[in-house]
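Hello Y.,

Per our agreement to keep a running log of every chain we model this quarter, I'm adding this entry. I've kept the format consistent with earlier entries: sequence first, then predicted structure.
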Amino acid sequence: MSAAATAALCTGAPETEGFVDSYRELAAPVLKQLAGQDFRAQWQAMADLGVLRLAAPDATAPGPVTRSLAMIEGIGLAGADPGLCYALASQIFGMQFPLRDALGADAWRAVAEVQEGRVLLCHALTERGGGSDPFSMETRARRDGDGFVLDGAKTFITAAPVADRAIVFARTAEGRSPFALSAFLFPLDLPGIRRGETFTKTALPTVPMGELLFEDARLPASALLGQEGSGLAVMASTTAWERSLVLGYALGPMRRLLARTTDWAAERDHFGRRMGASHQVAGRISDMALALHRSRVQLYAMAARLDAGTPARQLAAAAALTKISVSEDYVRMTEHATALSGVRAFLPGFDLAADLAADLAAPMAALTYAGPNDLLRVGVARQLGLPVEN
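Predicted structure for the entry above:
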């Protein structure tokens, strides 16, 4: 794809686009060296580049959230595996930024080593019986002296098999009261905590997924995030943050897919002419560009609102709409590229096959991760005033 065409898609502020380009250039040689290495090695390498480091709240432009989003896009554009990009985006936007907002300066310093890559977090909400429905939660934390005793299990947790600490949501009171849940942050090497099944995934397989099991696990009082009973508020913040920006992991792969598909269509001879001369092909390529453009504009707009100080909980509907829109555009882009490639999309020797092999599954995961789109649509309709029942 020509430099002029690439520039036309880069609609952000110059300093933001500069961050994307810088991290693409920084990551490219590192990613070549990482070929075949395990997830933690890849994670640490990206941390060493500064991808996990949050800029100060008063940082000069681009703001800290926009800066982190640009880093994720840049490493994805350099060819970082979509699963690694997803895991990084999930921790940065779904955990690090909300924790920095929620914790005082002293408490944040105690967990700030996550920015160096030495400590990896996971977000443990989902359970086998009730999914991510907080009011169906069965994991319980009961008061015991100055601390708590935790019993239960969390499943389908991204990075659980390799995480060092977890944000865990548990029931601390009965009933469906909004104050029945609490959130805890603690290391996973405490007595009474073990890792359960590790799941083999077909989508985003680079980042492991598994279970956490708790049996009489004693937590210190310092593990409590916020106040007892404030778990639903913590959950609202972490999920709004994550839905706002986790699809940033898709921007790099989307840009790579568009560039490679465009270059291939421009060069391929088809029915006596260049394939790209066809109006149908041109239409599909243009629709791919439209999907990428729309996704970039939406994600960076959300980052700008968060940089401006808008509380994440006030952005719940916008976050859900952004997540729905970008994930569905990611799927559409892949459908267009697959249609243009034909059977070659499924042949390992084809130039685009490597991109499509990852991208056929990764976009489908985006429809479900951070909340299934169907359920997010219900939440948006409810916020618009419809009396939608659970």
